[in-house]
Amino acid sequence: MISRPAVLAMLFGLACIIALAGVRVADPYFVRTMRETAFDQFQRLSPRPFQETPVRIIDVDEASLRKFGQWPWPRSLMAELTLRLGEMGAAAIAFDMLFAEPDRLSPSRLVGDPALAQYLDQEQLAKLAGEVTNNDAIFADALSQVPAVLGFAQVSEGQGSLPRVKAGFAYTGAPPFTAVARMLGAARNLAPLDDAAIGLGSISLSPTESVSVVRKVPLVWSDGNALYPGLAIEALRVAMGVSTLVVHAIDDEGVIVQAIRVGDIDIPTTADGALWMRYSRENKERYISASAILSDAIDPQTVEKVAGHIVLIGTSAIGLHDIRATSVGENVPGVSIHAQLLEQVLTNTYVYRSDWVDGLELFGFIFVACFVVGMSLATGPLISFLTGGVLAAGLAVGTWLAYARYGLLFDPTFPASGGLFVYLAMTTFRYFIADRQKRQIRRAFTQYVAPAVLEQIEMHPETLALGGETREVTVLFGDIRDFTTLSERLTPVEVVQFLNALLSSLSRQIIAEEGTIDKFIGDCIMAFWNAPLLMPDHALHACRAALAMRRAVGRFNAGDEGRAATGWGRELPAISVGFGINTGMACVGNMGSESRFDYSAVGDTVNIASRVETASKYIAFDIVLSGTTAAGAETLAILSAGTIHVKGKAQTVPTFILVGDEILAQSRQFVELRDAHDRLMTALENEVEEREVEALIAACKELAQGMDAPLGSFYDRITEREDDFHEAPVPKIARFPVEERLRASAGRAEGD
């Protein structure tokens, strides 16, 4: 049966799982950041290998700026660069830059300078205006002669009109206008330049400029009514000589873009029409310095690198502020990202993250979290942490292999971090709420039971409910003999020290035999076995504990424990402790109130154990057992001690004395002693002559000499207790099988 704390912990764990599943569905910023950071790590571990493709970057680098002057260059120089690329056979020339203002270095701008009007009249100015060149017109003319693609950039709504795109668009399935990245305003080039170009595409790399790492690049944009291509995909269209881009979209509880076709190339996209970037490391092979193109003597290898290639003109100069971070941890020019996008398309190297992946990741988290909850309930915090960690690590390895081998992006972070959160929440909850009962139990029992018993109690705390249960137990009472006389020799403080020292030593023996210490009553100790931990041989454990306590008392008297440690500084008489043990049915459980309890045993069995301990003084032996206990400890060295009267019971209680352990029970000396003792018991039952009884007692005392437990007083007292042996036959204890072999070796029969 599942305990109430376990049910509460399970419900709490399920509540955490439901709450975190809601967080994953909402997908807030910090969840996206963790996921995307993991994807960055994948790319850093396995970047896309650089392959030779028909894509080149014409770099306005630091060397070009030193040779041709600061940026922006005159449009006439840009026109020369454009024409030279066209002459080299570039398949498309795309500009990752804007030409939004008239060329400030154009000679035509000088005619309108007010300072010039101070020196020339209107007729001279008009003549001059007809003769000087217009750099923007020169650049526009150059653009019209080559397959040029200009750019435009996203700006806030209302800050710029959108351009008239050159690409045609078609779509299959659902209209994609609401699905793709929004562009409600644009920064554009001068109108003559846009008109001269064969293509126009967005140079923006993200819908939001706050993106620190470029992981996805929109391929198409929309203002809600029309579509606009990205710079790279527009350059590809121009290079392939196609007029129309085809967008494949479906309506599945919202419009989802699946792919974009350029000619015969299908490009898989995200749901919003973007492409996941799979970066390679920066490679100088994709770059050509602009100064090499504008050089007076052009290297033939440079011509080969341009012919038939898509060239993108951009800048790597630090001062021009077009440096972006990539997933592989590099800072690269923005034009490099456009170039790498084209490399991915042309080499068919993609990473995929389908729309159904979110659901699979949610299932993965629920699986890990449920596993953690189950392990937390079934095991301790350490085991659940380790097994949950192994499972999360396995998922992480699986997601890495999916990326490395198939280009699939699965998030390992949320299942792992969510599982860790559930683990911490479960551990905290169980510590403060569900384990409160366990801590109460440990505080109450840790000094009174063995660790194995305590673990069982913690696993089954329901056994400690008020009222308890009726169970067979073995009860032990131990009492210090002549304690009143002893205490008169000590001060009150020394009495406490004495009791603490002796009872602590006795308690350790009980706990070592997995007993439960019930209580200390002054100079008396009470313990029982078979509750709360079930043990089939509980009577044997109780007897072994009594033998261990006999030895502990001997060490105490010898000074190994007790007096030497307390430093009383005076001689005390030898300590003697009597033990009475009984086995029978008793009620065991939490005796008391709900706020303060005492796990105890009550019933007739406890009363008889107390009476047996009291009778040990009269019997004159330190460890006395009832018949039921002796029957459960047959392998020990046990002798019959007659019967005793118990107040309130009509029948007498048979008693036995515990002489020693199993080794003694198998010894020749004890077997001979028991045979002689049995003959003595028979003689007492049959009320033979006193002379014969005395002879038998003498024989027993002689055989008992040298044993650890002195039996002289016991046999001396028998003559005073003859009535205890007349009222009923004394039960026989089954012999240990070794006895028969000893008898055979001695040449005796069973009845001898």
UniProtKB/TrEMBL annotation:
<dbReference type="InterPro" id="IPR050697">
    <property type="entry name" value="Adenylyl/Guanylyl_Cyclase_3/4"/>
</dbReference>
<dbReference type="Pfam" id="PF05226">
    <property type="entry name" value="CHASE2"/>
</dbReference>
<feature type="transmembrane region" description="Helical">
    <location>
        <begin position="356"/>
        <end position="375"/>
    </location>
</feature>
<dbReference type="GO" id="GO:0006171">
    <property type="term" value="P:cAMP biosynthetic process"/>
</dbReference>
<dbReference type="InterPro" id="IPR007890">
    <property type="entry name" value="CHASE2"/>
</dbReference>
<dbReference type="GO" id="GO:0004016">
    <property type="term" value="F:adenylate cyclase activity"/>
</dbReference>
<feature type="transmembrane region" description="Helical">
    <location>
        <begin position="382"/>
        <end position="402"/>
    </location>
</feature>
<feature type="transmembrane region" description="Helical">
    <location>
        <begin position="414"/>
        <end position="433"/>
    </location>
</feature>
<protein>
    <submittedName>
        <fullName>Adenylate/guanylate cyclase domain-containing protein</fullName>
    </submittedName>
</protein>
<dbReference type="InterPro" id="IPR029787">
    <property type="entry name" value="Nucleotide_cyclase"/>
</dbReference>
<dbReference type="Pfam" id="PF00211">
    <property type="entry name" value="Guanylate_cyc"/>
</dbReference>
<dbReference type="GO" id="GO:0035556">
    <property type="term" value="P:intracellular signal transduction"/>
</dbReference>
<dbReference type="InterPro" id="IPR001054">
    <property type="entry name" value="A/G_cyclase"/>
</dbReference>
<keyword id="KW-0812">Transmembrane</keyword>
<keyword id="KW-0472">Membrane</keyword>
<keyword id="KW-1133">Transmembrane helix</keyword>
<feature type="domain" description="Guanylate cyclase">
    <location>
        <begin position="474"/>
        <end position="613"/>
    </location>
</feature>
